[in-house]
């Protein structure tokens, strides 16, 4: 009986093993999870869960009973220490398991501040897993003072939750503007104004020199010479692919675990999907750090592990919830040279990214209708003229029929 092993209990791993059974794989499946709980949703962790609006059980992607019912050997609190490609085995918890096909869905890990500047002081947190948020939650209290390092989506979402719970928040971003790496100045301006209206002190072009404290963090010295008194710090300076096992096993690494369009690594019996995997896309190699990519890519890999030859064609889309604003993003904006603004009803607005006359991406704030239209246009390769998008009288739905 064939044995398929999947290492990594996030969204990609859970989706992959479920798809294997759905598509009729009747061999042995083992899902190895480093955490002590079944696979769960990560996006609500730093929002609804941290706010106390979602119970732990509601985070689970599937009830724990699902895995037993499907004949999936779910191993919680287990870490693989080595992959032997020649023998086709993995070492886990003192045991050696043989595999016929192996999938790596190891995800990513947050970048941390160097210990030399106080990054390892108690009271300094990252927000990635359930354990991170459980450790952080007792500190997020009204009247507390928080420093958030990093003005990307992770930092801004953390700032929103802290502000909603009455925390005094200062956010520092070393670049000249928040979201500078991932969004247009128009989107940065929108979210700067939103956070400022909620009392967040945003300092752009300002970095962290060092954290201050002995037994725990009590302050921060910034690059502009100022100092802050703080009760806790949240670090949101990006994530990196979890590729240590793959590297040690000698797999090709290129901005993550390099896979082909089928999801196969440089070893014909090993596959990868989700945050840890980099794939070819439009002449470059990218990683897509999103829930939808984790699901879609993992399901394609599951089909190919069973003998299929299915190319993964990503349809990039992302979202972020901050206060009462829902940001939805379709496409990838790399290489844009023009932004077209389209105002919607009330607080709704969307920013359309163009390279020449080619539509690349859309950022939509509280504007799900135009988001869906933009998403469908991008996925079908259609690019309405920028002046058409900017025209308030344009029938947007008609663009889908053009």
Walk me through this protein's architecture.
It is a single chain. By secondary structure, the chain is of the alpha/beta class. It has helices at residues 11-22, 56-59, 64-69, 130-136, 153-164, 185-197, 244-248, 291-305, 368-379, 386-390, 396-399, and strands spanning 3-7, 28-32, 72-75, 80-84, 89-92, 95-98, 101-104, 108-110, 124-126, 145-149, 168-173, 201-204, 208-213, 217-222, 227-229, 232-235, 239-241, 257-258, 270-272, 277-281, 284-286, 317-322, 325-331, 338-343, 349-355, 358-365. The strands form 7 sheets. Strands 3-2-1-7-19 form a 5-stranded parallel sheet. Strands 9-16-10-11-12 form a 5-stranded parallel sheet, with helices on one face. Helix 1 packs parallel to helix 8 (291-305). The radius of gyration is 22 Å and the shape is globular. The mean pLDDT is 96.
């Amino acid at each position: 009986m064939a044995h398929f092993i999947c290492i990594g209990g996030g969204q990609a791993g859970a989706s992959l093993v479920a798809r294997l059974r759905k598509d009729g794989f009747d061999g042995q499946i083992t899902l190895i999870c480093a955490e002590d709980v079944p696979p769960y949703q990560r996006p609500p962790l730093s929002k609804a869960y941290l706010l106390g609006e979602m119970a732990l059980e509601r985070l689970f992607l599937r009830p724990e009973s699902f895995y037993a019912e499907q004949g999936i050997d779910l191993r919680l609190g287990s870490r693989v220490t080595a992959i032997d490609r020649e023998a086709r085995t993995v070492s886990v918890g003192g045991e050696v398991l043989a595999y016929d096909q192996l999938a790596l869905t190891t995800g990513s890990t947050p970048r941390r501040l160097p210990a030399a500047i106080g990054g390892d002081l108690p009271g300094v947190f990252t927000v990635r897993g359930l354990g991170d948020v459980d450790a952080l939650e007792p500190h997020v209290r009204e009247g507390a003072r928080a420093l958030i390092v990093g003005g990307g989506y992770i930092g801004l979402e953390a700032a929103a939750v802290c502000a909603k719970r009455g925390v005094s928040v200062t956010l520092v971003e070393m670049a000249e503007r928040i979201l500078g790496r991932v969004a247009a100045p128009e989107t940065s301006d929108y979210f700067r104004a939103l956070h400022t209206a909620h009392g967040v002190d945003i300092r752009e072009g300002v970095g962290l020199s060092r954290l201050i404290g002995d037994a725990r963090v009590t302050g921060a010295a910034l690059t502009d010479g100022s100092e802050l008194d703080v009760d806790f710090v949240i670090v949101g300076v990006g994530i990196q692919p979890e590729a240590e096992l793959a590297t040690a096993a000698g797999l090709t690494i290129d901005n993550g675990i390099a896979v082909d369009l089928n999801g196969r690594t440089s070893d014909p019996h090993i596959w990868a999907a989700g945050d840890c995997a980099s794939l070819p896309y439009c002449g470059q190699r990218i990683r897509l750090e999103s829930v939808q990519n984790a699901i879609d890519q993992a399901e394609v890999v599951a089909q190919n592990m069973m003998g299929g030859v299915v190319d993964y064609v990503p349809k990039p889309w992302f979202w972020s919830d901050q206060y009462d604003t829902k940001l939805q993003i379709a496409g990838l904006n790399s290489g844009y040279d023009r932004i077209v603004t389209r105002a919607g009803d009330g607080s709704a607005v969307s920013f359309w990214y163009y390279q020449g006359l080619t539509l690349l991406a859309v950022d939509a704030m509280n504007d799900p209708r135009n988001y869906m239209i933009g998403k469908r246009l991008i996925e079908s390769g259609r690019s309405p003229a920028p002046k058409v998008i900017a025209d308030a009288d344009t029938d947007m739905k008609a663009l889908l029929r053009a």
